[in-house]
Amino acid sequence: MYNRIKEIRNSLKMNQTEFAQHLGLSQSTLAMIEVGKRKFSDKHIKIICSTFNINENWLRTGEGEMFNSSLYEKELIDVFDNLNPETQQYLIVMAKELLNTQKKLLNQKHEEVD
């Protein structure tokens, strides 16, 4: 399990200090946990899973996917599966347009901050 904690942190592109702050731990404590020199509490497992949408079974056993799929993802897949092929294609086009609009808005926001 200790290797998986480090794997989560790396996947999230966080350093030990940033990740430890989310758990209420010090960087040195997290470092010792990642190498298996300190135990990891159930409380911290719950915090990791809820904060970062991590599959608890994967964290504990290594089985399954690292991340849980979101409720929105499941809902979107259900909706998509019930559309006819032409409407599915339209939804894909609209989703790509929405993504482009989001990127433009985020870029504008970054430019305003800089």
TrEMBL record:
Q: Does the keyword Isomerase apply?
A: no
Q: GO molecular function of the protein, one example? A: DNA binding
Which keywords fit this entry according to its UniProt record? DNA-binding, Transcription, Transcription regulation
- UniProt domain HTH cro/C1-type: residue ranges: 5-59
Entry-linked Gene3D superfamilies: lambda repressor-like DNA-binding domains
Q: Which InterPro entries match?
A: Cro/C1-type_HTH, Lambda_DNA-bd_dom_sf
**CDD domains noted in UniProt:** HTH_XRE
| Family matches, as PROSITE patterns | HTH_CROC1 (PS50943)
What protein name does the entry list? Helix-turn-helix transcriptional regulator
